[in-house]
Amino acid sequence: MMVGKTPIVAVAAMLLAVVSVSHAFTTVSPLVKIQSPSTPASTKLYMADMVTNLRCEWISAALCTNQTPRSADVCLVLGCQDGRPVTFIPRTIETLITSTVEADGELPVAVRRQLKQQEKTRNASVVSMVDQRADDLKETKDQSVDVVISLQSAAKMKENGLSWKKSVQEAARVLKPGGRFLFVEQSTLDGESYLEYVGNLGTAIVKKKSDQETSDDGDDDQDMPEVYPTFECMGYDDVDLVLVPHVASVFVKSEDAGLTEADRAKKESKVEEDRLAELSISAFERGMKKRRRKKKTLKDATENLSDRIKKQLVLGESLLEFLYPDIFIDTFCDACPMCSNIMKEEDIVSGWQQCDFQDFTTACPQCSHRFVPQFKVSCSSAAFEGSQGPGTPLYCEFLSPWVLRKELGHIIRGTNSIEQILDPAWRSGTDIRATIWWNLITMFKRYQLPFSFLLQGSFRNRLINPVPQD
């Protein structure tokens, strides 16, 4: 009899372990609650298929964390069902707006409780608990949101009588041009692909005609609206190892959404004028440089530095190499996503918007497309934590001095002030703190400024001592 019971005991232990992991990872999800006999079939399937639930949860966390732009301030959740969004989105988000999958448009009390708990625990973004249906965002203004996320809510909308298609349309309405739509949803709903519906969503623009342009024969062909794509797909992938097919994707709202043909032509003409103006300025600058002597090399520039600065630069490079063996900061690894032009460090620096504390982008000198640049930090130490885990390179957003100043201002005004930046543990991860620290190193090296004080937390002895005056 004991032999026959052994498999049952083992299976029970495995189920208890899985449930413990799911509770430790996130707040209690409605998908794992005890349901009444009237529970919809799709919800019962999620309860039985815990692998799908947990797998989608991991994908959702990674998607929100990695694909939310650092410059984004406002995020809206389509069909908020628990407190997960507060945990998933980066701390750079200032306001999180809710919507519900309930037919009455009211956010359930349990969801409010979880959101408040996560907001208090994380002490990050402010949660704006708005009672509005996910398919009717009546409390949210047009083009007022930077990011919209939809995490396994479309199927729940369908069960509760809401329209998941209208929720996508509402997301397009409230998103700013250039805003992002992130989702992890069931692949097909009502026999239609969720991914294809978002990709095929268009904005209809009807050109208004004057009375003189109206034809006498009653031909209405010219009155047909012109449809332009609303979203541009930045990438998608199927969620594997699940029983219920799901898809994860990132869409960006078109900068030209809502513009007529005349507006588009005017905008393209303006872009072309700016491009020609930049070419003229570049040609003029090249002509001026020919009349000057050749640009000094880094070695020549170093010779003009004082001995004290030289010693500090050498000390900083040596200490950095000691802490990070074979350290290599590659600022030439990025390319323009539009024309594939390899961006040099000088190109990235010249493409920054001067004195703009909110713009994380640079401009490609070849096609003028703006995007968020990156640089790569690699190290031979096995303990070095990169973007893909220990021993892998770390990819950081290349921040302008003005954006870096803004981020440092947030840190200095916080607890422990500047001292936390000197702590090695503060820069050891892969989040915004590591990005800020390596941007400081990169900027100091670019302008030949001593940076050994940034390494003080890794050494007991003082690295910078007062030098007696001669």
From TrEMBL:
Signal as UniProt keyword: yes
Extent of the signal sequence: 1-24
GO molecular function: S-adenosylmethionine-dependent methyltransferase activity
Domain Methyltransferase type, first and last residues per copy: 116-183
GO CC, alphabetical: cytoplasmic vesicle
Name of the protein this chain belongs to: Methyltransferase type 11 domain-containing protein
One GO-annotated biological process of the protein: methylation
Coiled coil segments of this chain: none
Keyword terms of this UniProt record: Methyltransferase, S-adenosyl-L-methionine, Signal, Transferase
Species for this entry: Pseudo-nitzschia australis
Name of one Pfam family that matches: Methyltransf_11
